[in-house]
Amino acid sequence: MSNVLVIESSARQQGSVSRQLTEQFIARWRAAHPADSIEIRDLAVEQVPHLDANLLGGWMTPAEQQSEAERAALALSNQLSDELLAADVLVLAAPMYNFAIPSTLKAWLDHVLRAGVTFHYTENGPEGLLKGKRAFVLTARGGIYAGGSLDQQEPYLRQALGFIGINDVSFIHAEGLNMGGDVSEKGLAEAQEKLAQVA
């Protein structure tokens, strides 16, 4: 049995293609892996604070010297990190906002990319501690960006996940969604087809 952690980051609850892809992924995964546990964290519903002085203080200040705000920030970061550590499979749903990932997803990453927890420093440089996990990234994009210079989602997420040791990453891009007609239909259909193959 595997633990699957799903991270939703679309600001929209209705009409979101990334959420639609997530629903389809979960349904197919459950059909293929009925014994697996699936946990969903919705960053639009339970917002994660952006990196601030309280979180930095919680990480760097000895426990007996932490303020109440620093302890609260550290407790949330620990909770998010523990969820990721417990997962065997990570699913990130990431619509493209202004050529990149939603700021809510970046905030989540800032909480879980933690020295001594998900990576550590060695004499040869940083080393990820989450080796052996798989990740699937479901994106929704108004235009067509895959493989081009304007795609700042895939390179960034590959680097961030690889930094903590997750190198087995599959991207499923639904592209051209705002281009109308056959283009948007084709983009969604291709994403759904690939999703069916990997899930």
Radius of gyration, in angstroms, nearest whole number: 18 Å
Strand order of the largest sheet: 2-1-3-6-7
Question: What is the CATH T-level topology?
Answer: Rossmann fold
Shape: globular
Provide a short characterization of the protein structure:
The protein has 199 residues and is α/β, with parallel strands linked by helices. It has helices spanning 17-32, 53-60, 68-86, 103-112, 153-163, 181-198; strands spanning 3-8, 37-42, 89-95, 119-122, 125-128, 134-140, 168-174.
Structure description:
The protein is α/β, with parallel strands linked by helices and 199 residues long. It has six helices and seven strands, in the order E-H-E-H-H-E-H-E-E-E-H-E-H. It is globular, with a radius of gyration of 18 Å. It has a five-stranded parallel β-sheet with strand order 2-1-3-6-7, with helices on both faces. Strands 4-5 form a two-stranded antiparallel ribbon. It has a single domain (3-198), classed as Rossmann fold. The chain has helices spanning 17-32, 53-60, 68-86, 103-112, 153-163, 181-198, and strands at residues 3-8, 37-42, 89-95, 119-122, 125-128, 134-140, 168-174.
Salient structural properties:
single chain; 199 residues; alpha/beta; Rossmann fold; two-stranded antiparallel ribbon; globular
Secondary structure layout:
Layout: E1 3-8, H1 17-32, E2 37-42, H2 53-60, H3 68-86, E3 89-95, H4 103-112, E4 119-122, E5 125-128, E6 134-140, H5 153-163, E7 168-174, H6 181-198
Parallel strand pairs: 1-2, 1-3, 3-6, 6-7
Antiparallel strand pairs: 4-5
Helix pairs in contact: 1-6, 2-3
